[in-house]
UniProtKB/TrEMBL annotation:
Protein species of origin: Tupaia chinensis
Descriptive protein name: Carnitine O-palmitoyltransferase 1, liver isoform
InterPro entries, alphabetized: Carn_acyl_trans, CAT-like_dom_sf, Cho/carn_acyl_trans, Cho/carn_acyl_trans_2, CPT_N
Residues forming the catalytic site: 396 (proton acceptor)
GO biological process assignments: carnitine metabolic process; fatty acid beta-oxidation
Length: 729
């Protein structure tokens, strides 16, 4: 996602103007502190874990085991094989009247030790099972006997009804790849985009790095991987996000959008009431550890600092902050009876909308400070438009897109299908006129801050107005067609994106695709370098008039297979970029000059891509309610002359794209790339024409020429078109 921009800019946080003074401590000390933080987090969760059954067993299993031991003891059976008698001898002797109590205590201690040993065995067994990633290498739809056996064992050892942190300590640590393999994969990834001379020079730097510095830096990473929970994630959060001094708007934050085709109610306050209530229901389930996302999604904010920010997480909160027409309000979300119902929340939001009081001087633009370097600081911000549409702006440091996406899917489904609206568009239920009015926040703004507000507002406007954001649904085909091609839908689109970009710019570029590493403890993301030699060969074949469609199809399948291999490697901890990032951080701790790593982290990602995953299809009935599909979300470009491309597969026959670029660039145009993407997808689909019943369709009146006329028998005749007016973030 937007992390590509931060990944490029993180080097600034290690300069003398940034964090160099903080990195003067020995690297062993930082590794020690990293591990100490991990252990503190582990200990802080321990008691809650026991109570909520995070181990494969639950506290009730201890009671059952203790009762069974006492029952056996009462009928003269000793399941401890004499251990309980030895435990009794170690207990203080209080006389005959305490003899029975000593037996109970001995039984409790033995049961606790046995229970702990069984849990530890289950824990270790589950960790070993979850370290198996052979299923990633198997063809889609095929499952080998070892994988079937593995899956059955995982189900046995994982227990019933796992909760939020049930598998947290059973997840394996993310492995540190071989440095030789990482450098080899890196050189392979840049070969298609470098000239012969530049590639030879890069190879020389790589060989020098392997010979002089790699082994030392790798040793420190191996040490950290054994001591800390994850060898890369805490440094990634620290240097890529929290130490970044860029504006979070566009550069880091990402957005998510409403349903694509419908607005459940046109009433702004009603939509806000249901949406906020649904979010609070989600938080309630999260607090009870009934759902699997992330603990910092609520009650969290990014507190700014001079050199670095930090994430502050509160244990609880019973209000939301509301910003409207330059004014800030505090709205309570609970009453004595618990969570306020949607109609009561709608009433409170309507009171804010009806409040005629103006913003105080300088208060109106106070929020612009959050667009200065390091703000948009909340974990997420819900945006409700006057026509009832919803949007979400998400801060990136605390977690990645799938976490927020999980919450967003729940929110849209709950507020629409479960809470619902009355026939007049209001939330269901009755108002509560006895509720106190929302609290208007009063600000003490010294005169010295006024210039900062003005400067921040000017910067925010410049940044916002410079973004060309184009959102369009591609409805000619979707996941069902790609599935019939027996191909990965993500690899299909990623390979088509290489063709679209080449047609747009006439060259290949370094491409960033975000992949998840959540198979590992505290795993976050890894980069898939999607511009491969195989993808370039396919693109050249598509542009070569002498190549036949069968030849192109063979090359396309080879490119897709290569992308799948890279994606699986990234997911299993064998990617390139996080390892190189961690090596670079260690080199800066040690004050080592590493020209190879310097060059790696000076690269620009001119094409940054990501798929928005749909994780809870059971929440949406796409067959009976086909219009109730999310339009996904997007992010800003990682480079001044680059593109940010996000896409989401909606149902079986639609792919929605979000394309961003900067208007100040003379090399990019979001709408132009959008047309190239549409053309590229249809051109690739036409390669499968004979086997998958594609046909050329007549072009309708007023339909724009896209360079061809191929579509599905089951597709809409004219597709879906959107306004050519750019949409700003």
């Amino acid at each position: 996602m937007a992390e590509a921009h931060q990944a490029v800019g993180f080097r600034a946080s290690l300069t003398p103007d940034g964090a160099e003074a903080q990195l003067s401590a020995p690297v062993l000390q930082d590794i020690y502190l990293s591990g100490l933080r991990s252990w503190k987090r582990t200990l802080s969760r321990f008691w809650n874990d026991v109570l909520t059954g995070v181990f494969p067993a639950s506290p009730l299993s201890w009671l059952f085991l203790f009762s069974a031991i006492q029952l056996a003891w009462s009928v003269q059976l000793d399941p401890s094989l004499g251990l309980m008698e030895k435990i009794k001898e170690l207990l203080p002797d209080g006389g005959g009247q305490y003899h029975m109590l000593r037996g109970v205590l001995a039984g409790a201690l033995f049961a606790s030790c046995l229970w702990g040993a069984l849990i530890f065995t289950l824990h270790v067994a589950l960790r070993l099972l979850l370290s198996y990633h052979g299923w990633l290498q198997e063809p889609h739809g095929a499952m080998s006997s070892p994988t079937k056996t593995w899956l059955a064992l995982v189900r046995i050892f994982s227990g019933r009804r796992p909760m939020l942190f049930s598998f947290q300590r059973s997840l394996p640590r993310q492995p540190v790849p071989s440095v030789q393999d990482t450098v080899r994969k890196y050189l392979e990834s840049v070969r298609p985009i470098l000239s012969e001379e530049d590639f030879d020079w890069t190879s020389v730097l790589a060989e020098e790095f392997l010979r002089l510095q790699a082994s030392l830096l790798q040793w420190y990473l191996l040490l950290k991987s054994w001591w800390a929970s994850n060898y890369v994630s805490d440094w990634w959060e620290e240097f890529v996000y929290l130490r970044s001094r860029n504006s979070l708007m566009v550069n880091s934050n990402y957005y998510m959008m409403d349903f694509l085709y419908v607005t459940p109610t046109p009433l702004q306050a009603a939509r806000a009431g249901n949406a906020v209530h649904a979010l609070l229901l989600f938080r309630h389930r999260l607090n009870r550890q009934e759902i699997p996302p992330y603990e910092k999604i609520f009650n969290s904010t990014r507190v700014p600092g001079a050199q670095r920010d930090y994430i502050r997480h509160l244990r609880d909160s019973r209000h939301v902050a509301v910003f409207h027409r330059g004014r800030f309000f505090r709205v309570g979300t609970h009453s004595r009876n618990g969570l306020l119902p949607p109609r009561a929340l709608e009433q409170q939001f309507q009171r804010i909308l009806d409040d005629p009081s103006p913003a105080c001087p300088q208060e109106e633009h106070l929020a612009a400070l959050t667009a200065a370097p390091s703000w948009f600081d909340k974990s997420f911000t819900l945006i409700v438009f006057s026509n009832g549409k919803l949007g979400l702006s998400v801060e990136h440091a605390w977690a990645d897109c799938p976490i927020a996406g999980h919450m967003w899917e729940f929110t849209l489904a709950t507020e629409c299908f479960q809470l619902g609206y009355s026939t007049d568009g209001h939330c269901k239920g009755r108002p509560e006129p006895t509720l106190p009015q929302p609290q208007r926040l009063q600000w003490d703004l010294p005169d010295q801050i006024h210039p900062s507000i003005t400067l921040a507002l000017r910067g925010a406007k410049i940044l916002s107005e410079n973004i060309d954001c184009h959102v369009f649904p591609f409805s000619h085909f979707g996941k069902s067609f790609i599935r019939r091609c027996h191909l990965s839908s993500d690899s299909f689109v990623q390979t088509a994106l290489q063709l679209a970009y080449f047609r747009d710019r006439g060259q290949f570029c370094l491409t960033y695709e975000s992949a998840m590493t959540r198979l590992f403890l505290e795993g976050r993301t890894e980069t898939v370098r999607s511009c491969t030699r195989e993808a370039c060969d396919f693109v050249r074949a598509m542009e070569d008039q002498e190549k036949t469609d069968p030849q192109r199809l063979v090359l396309f399948r080879v490119a897709v297979d290569k992308h799948q291999a890279l994606l699986k490697a990234a997911m299993s901890g064998q990617g390139v970029d996080r390892h190189l990032f961690a090596l670079y951080v260690v080199s800066r701790f040690l004050h080592l000059q590493t020209p190879f790593l310097d060059q790696v982290h000076a690269e620009q990602w001119q094409l940054s891509t990501s798929q928005i995953p749909v994780q809870q299809m059971h929440l949406f009935d796409v067959h009976n309610y086909p219009d109730y599909v999310s339009s996904g979300g997007g992010f800003g470009p990682a480079d001044d002359h680059g593109y940010g491309v996000s896409y989401i597969f909606m149902g079986d026959d639609t792919i929605t794209f979000h394309i961003s670029s900067k208007k100040s660039s003379t090399k990019t145009d979001s709408h132009r790339l959008g047309q190239h993407i549409e053309d590229a997808l249809l051109d690739v689909a036409s390669l499968f024409q004979a086997g998958l019943h594609l046909k050329c369709r007549p072009r309708g009146l007023g339909e724009e020429d896209s360079g061809h006329g191929c579509g599905f028998l089951s597709s809409p005749t004219g597709g879906i078109k959107t306004s050519r007016t750019p949409t700003n973030f």
